[in-house]
Write a structure and sequence with these properties.
Distance between the termini: 57 Å
Order of helices and strands: HHHHHHEEEH
Number of helices: 7
Strand order of the largest sheet: 1-2-3
Helix content: 40-55%
Number of strands: 3
Strand content: 5-15%
């Protein structure tokens, strides 16, 4: 069983990150993007939505942290469990379309679209709010909503180390949990092809 400290760190660093990326991917999917950019945001959304759905439903896989680790099994009475079961079929379709080379992947009628997955996004937002409301101390105090808000992240781009195979990288800078005046950086790699590098120098 995880310690209170481990659960606090996990909530602060990992759960908030999943929600942050879910929200960012969703906002980008509703924008006009190159088809390949849209696909990458769609795939990102699917991964984070699947993880958060599993977290909120407190899946039986004890290798993962679950919402019930924080708020107890009674949380099941506070969220939309019936709708969650209905969304389970949608999550399975995410698996087959994005995370597996399933045989039904090329079925255009079964392919998921923004309109088809919107109920999943809405369910996560609604029930994550229920989860935060149900959090006891010290977890409630440690939760910082800004860490899950794409509009509150500070983004800066720096050059990579001198190795020729390394990409440039983006730093997402957030306040540390214990000290709002110091900053914590998360490195996100942004790969650039050799031809793009050559074009950039011309």
């Amino acid at each position: 069983m995880s310690s209170q400290r481990d659960l606090t760190v996990y909530l602060h660093e990992h759960v908030s990150y999943e929600l942050l990326m879910l929200r960012y991917a969703w906002s980008q999917m509703e924008a006009y993007l190159h088809p390949l950019d849209w696909n990458s945001k769609f795939e990102s959304f699917c991964i984070h939505a699947r993880l958060l759905h599993s977290f909120l439903c407190s899946s039986d896989d004890n290798r993962n942290h679950r919402a019930s680790d924080y708020v107890g099994d009674d949380f099941e009475a506070t969220y939309d469990k019936i709708h969650s079961l209905q969304l389970g079929h949608l999550v399975q379709r995410l698996d087959s379309q994005v995370l597996h080379l399933g045989k039904q992947r090329s079925d255009s009628e079964r392919k998921l679209t923004v309109d088809k997955i919107r109920p999943l996004f809405d369910w996560i937002e609604t029930n994550f709010a229920c989860f935060i409301k149900a959090l006891p101390e010290p977890y409630k105090t440690s939760w910082n909503p800004d860490h899950a808000d794409p509009a509150k992240t500070q983004i800066g781009v720096e050059k990579a180390p001198t190795q020729s195979s390394n990409p440039s990288y983006t730093l997402l800078t957030l306040p540390r949990q214990s000290d709002t005046t110091s900053m914590q950086s998360i490195t996100v790699f942004n790969y650039t092809t050799k031809s793009q590098k050559n074009n950039a120098t011309e």
